[in-house]
Amino acid sequence: MNTKLFDIPVLLITFNRPETTCHVFEQIRRIKPKTLYVFSDAARPERPGEEDLVNTCRSLFDKSQINWECDFQTWYPDTNLGCAVGVSSAISWAFENSEKLIILEDDCLPHPTFFNFCKSMLDKYEDNERVMHVSGTRWNEEYKVNDGDHFFSLIGHIWGWATWKRAWKKYDYHMEKLSGLKDERKLQMLFNDRKIAKYWHDRFDELDIQSRKSTWDYQWQYSLFLNDGLASVPNVNLISNIGLEGVHSDGKQTEHHFCKTDSWNTLPLPVEVSINSGYEKYHANTRFLKKPPMRERIVNRIKMAFGQHA
To answer: CATH code at 232?
Structure first.
C-alpha cells in the first residue's frame, strides 16, 4: 500500500454528476494529496431532482473516505454560483493558502501519471513567469512537435490542468483590457495568422456582450494571451473526459469522446520554452476552425432563417 503523500495541492470541482465524480475522486485518493480542496456547487432550485444529485456528490467526501493525513477543505455554497463564477471563485479560494494547484473537474479522469507530470512542470517552471499553465490534455497527438516529454503552446486547455498563484493573479474575469489587445493586434502577432486571431476575437466579443457571463475559461485564455503566457503540454494525452458537455447550462448536452490516455515518461532531453508555429496553426485548424458537417450547417441555416436558435 502506498503511504507516501503527494505534496502538490489538488482542487476537485464538482456539481451534479456523482458517477463521474466517484471515478475522478478515486484517482485522487490513490495519490493521497497532503492538501485536498473540494468545491461543490449548490443545486438550481428550478431543476427538479438536482438537489439529490448534489447531495449524493457531497456524500462521497465523507471524512471516512480521507484515510490518510490530509488537510481536507470543502466549500459547499448554499446557493448556486454557476459555472462562470463558481469555478473561477473555487480556484481563487484554493489559492488563498496554496502557491501551486492541480485542478480537476468532476468529468476529467486523469491517468495516474498526470499527477507526476503536473508536479514535474510546476516545480521545473515555478520561476518562469512566461509559463502560466500546465495542460493534462494533448490534442493532435498525430502531430509530432519534438522528442521531449513536453512542449509549449499558446492554448491552455482546462480538461485537467495546473497552475501557480503567481499566474492566477493575472486572471481577468471581466477582460478589462480586451480593447487594447485588439488595438495592438497582439493575437495576430502571436499566431502570425489573421484567421486564427479573428476566431479568438470573435469568441471574446461574444462573451463580452453577454449581460451574465456564462463561462470562466475563455477569460483564462484571454489572460494567457494578454501576458504572453505559455502552456506546458505533455507529449501524450493524460486526461479522459467521461462526462457530458453542457450540464451547467441550458444548452444541448453532448457526450465527450476524448478517452485515450497513455503513460507519461520523463525524457532526459532539453525542451526550449517556445512555441512551434506549425503545431499552433494545425491545432487551431483541426480543433477550433474546423467546420461542422455540411448537414449540420444546413440545419443551422434553416433554423436561423426561421428565427430559431441553432
So the answer is: 3.90.550.10
Provide the 8-state DSSP code for 287: I
Which residue do the cell numbers 502531430 mark? 143
pTM for the full predicted model: 0.89
How does residue 250 score in pLDDT terms, banded at 50, 70 and 90?
very low
- State the CB neighbour count (10 A cutoff) for residue 307: 6
**12 CB-contact burial (10 Å; exposed 0-12 / middle 13-18 / buried 19+):** buried
Cα separation, 8 vs 100, in Å, equals 7
Higher local confidence (pLDDT), 258 or 188 = 188
CA dist 242 to 10, 15, 157, Å? 19, 14, 16
Instruction: Give the sign of the dihedral formed by CA 153, CA 159, CA 241, CA 209.
Output: negative
Q: What is the pLDDT of residue 125?
A: 98
In a domain, 310, yes or no: no
